[in-house]
Amino acid sequence: MSLPSSAFRQFDLFMQHRMVLDVAAPIVFLLLWATGFAVVKIGLQHIEPLTFLALRYGCVVVILLPIQLGFRLPVPHHGRDWLNVCVIGVCIQVIYFGGTYLALRAGLSAGALALMVSLQPILVAIIAPIWIKERVSSKQWCGLSLGFAGAAIVILSKSAIESTPWQGITLSCIALSGMTLGVLYEKKTSASMHPISATLIQTSVGLLLIAPLALLLESGHIEWRSEMLCSLAYLVIGNSLIAIGLLLHLVRHRPASRVSALFFLVPPCAAIAAGVLLGESMPGLAWLGIGLATAGVWLTVNLR
């Protein structure tokens, strides 16, 4: 009887950890992801965008490669699996992050950029039934619509007090397409690869594509200030290692439309972070948008 009792205790402990992860993962991901917009803008005051992104990816590879080799973590065995993980890497690491860095450098505010890329849940909800055969209920559509309305109120209230460069809008749309395709492709391929292996491969793809562009298009000048180093450290550890890992976990274990709904909360959180870190103002009307976005996410995640 001792063996079954021990097995049950281990199972209960596993389930408790799993429940904690399921609750904490969306919250931690949201906070890290949303704050990243302001942190990137701080770093871009001292370094060019593609150079900054290549430096970030290089640091991630240096950290993860010894872990990958030391623990002999599994890697894809088939060419199709390699192709799938590399395509996701191009979508997220190159198109999404490249677009966001360039948009911020073009003058788009952190809050405005966060809103543009938060349109992703609408695109996912439209494409998911066609591409990955994932049904979005009418109740979830109500939540998505409410979340979009809240996010729109945040950006419209901010646009009344700040200019919005068209170059930044265009680049943010490119970034939006990258994240949308990345989430859907990850869900469609149902990759079960170890998250460290997946992050290492995808970041390496980003480094191989971004670094030559940085060398070709930018001067490579870097101001090694404490603000830039702190920004780099946050983006490497908080975004590339923790947030991306949590995003992959959420996409693999939850419907794509429900995971994407979290992005409606990014603009409010990013606006708050930008106000604290950058002094970007947030009008009173934006708080109404925060409330609507929060309600929209709750409806999308909890209703079927």
From TrEMBL:
Cellular component annotations (GO), alphabetically ordered: membrane
Localisation per UniProt entry: Membrane
Domain EamA span(s) in chain numbering: 28-155, 168-301
Keywords on record: Membrane, Transmembrane, Transmembrane helix
A matching Pfam family: EamA
Parts of the chain that traverse the membrane: 20-44, 50-70, 82-104, 110-132, 141-160, 166-185, 197-217, 232-251, 258-278, 284-303
Membrane topology reported for the UniProt record: Multi-pass membrane protein
Domain of life: Bacteria
Similarity section: Belongs to the EamA transporter family.
Protein name (Swiss-Prot/TrEMBL): Permease of the drug/metabolite transporter superfamily
